[in-house]
Amino acid sequence: AVLSNGLRTAVPPHITVGTRIVVLTEDGSYSERAKD
């Protein structure tokens, strides 16, 4: 996935375009879906 700030990270297949996610700042990896 390419995030709005240009960061590229791997996400699970169930994450679709426009889904907000939480990214770990330590290594830029996917953590979970954001709780809106």
Kindly summarize this structure in a few lines.
With 36 residues, the chain is mainly beta. It has strands at residues 21-23, 30-33.
Any chance you could write out the topology, listing elements then pairs?
Blueprint: E1 21-23, E2 30-33
Antiparallel strand pairs: 1-2
Characterise this structure:
- It is a single chain.
- With 36 residues, this protein is mostly beta strands.
- It has one domain.
- It is 0% helix and 19% strand.
- It has a two-stranded antiparallel sheet with strand order 1-2.
- The model has no long low-confidence stretch (mean pLDDT 95).
Structural class: mainly beta
Estimate percent helicity: under 10%
Radius of gyration: 9 Å
SSE pattern? EE
How many β-strand stretches?
2
Per DSSP, the total helix count is 0
How many domains? The number is 1
Main sheet: which strands, in order across?
1-2
Largest sheet: 2 strands, antiparallel
Low-pLDDT runs = none
Distance between the termini: 20 Å
Average of per-residue pLDDT values: 95
Work out the strand percent: 15-25%
Shape type = globular
